[in-house]
Amino acid sequence: MAVKDSVIKKNKELSKPMDLFNTGFVGALGGGGVVEATGGTENDYTVSGVNYRSHTFLSGTTNLVVTVGGDVDVLVVAGGGAAGAASGGDGGGGGAGGMIAQTGVTLSDSTNYPAVVGAGGTTASNSIGNNGGPSSFSTVSTSGGGGGGRSNIAARNGGSGGGPGSDGTTQGAAGTGIAGQGNDGGYDNSNEGSGGGGKGEAGFASGNGGDGAVNDYRTGSNIYYAGGGGGGRDGVDTSGGLGGGGNGSTGTGNTAGATNTGGGGGGSGGTAQGTIGGSGIVVVRYVL
Predict the structure, then answer these.
(1) How far, rounded to the nearest angstrom, does the alpha carbon of residue 17 sit from its chain's CA centroid?
(2) Is the CA virtual torsion 82, 85, 86, 89 positive or negative?
(3) Which helix (H) or strand (E) holds 27?
(4) Which pLDDT tens digit goes with each residue over 200-242?
(5) Are strands 135-137 and 111-117 parallel, antiparallel or unpaired?
(6) Which residue segment(s) compose the domain that 21 sits in?
(7) Where are the beta strands (DSSP E) in 88-195?
């Protein structure tokens, strides 16, 4: 075939021989649509041969600045609820902050996405615990954990429900959790405080907080989040649920929900005030 009759000569879009090579491989050389973003604390890790980058947000509202969009995995945990005060009886454990882990969240090019991290619930003397603050990122949002009950006043509803307190004779109603985010507080109509609900299970009538659930988006290793706080009981210390739930106590040894877990605060069966809930966390990760 003469040069004047060649495919390259006839095709106006491929006026040079190298154009045929460039056209065939430009998609493979163009980056493949990998997400590019900045914000929060970045961490690169490998799981089962797959390379990931995570962005972790620990407080307040901070933007993830997306240059190149794509699909990401998102973990959102709200702040845990505070435990109820022990005045006039036993304080119930705080409920864990709502927890959602969602894959395939699509982010757009050249867009800022606020990561909102909820604070832990606060306490007040002679009061039921306050709920934790909500957390959110893009289309994923969760509710703060329910505050624990005081005396025979009902615990608060939330991502996970707060545990009921007692006036020494009967419990108040347990807080109710939100489906997909957490579970209810424990309830047994006794004269003691019960545990707050966690992501993985309800709070226990025995006073222990419900366990949370594991997620590996932050580092590639499983970490527990969203454990319920232990309730206050006379003569028995209680355990917070796995995932940052504070321990309950017969006196002043009750502990707060752990920071950046969404754990509920621990209650007291003595004269101590209920403890605060743990703050939440937002993690965004994608394949490199």
Answers:
(1) 56
(2) negative
(3) helix 17-29
(4) 999 999 999 999 999 999 999 999 999 999 999 988 999 999 9
(5) antiparallel
(6) 1-30
(7) 99-107, 111-117, 135-137, 140-142
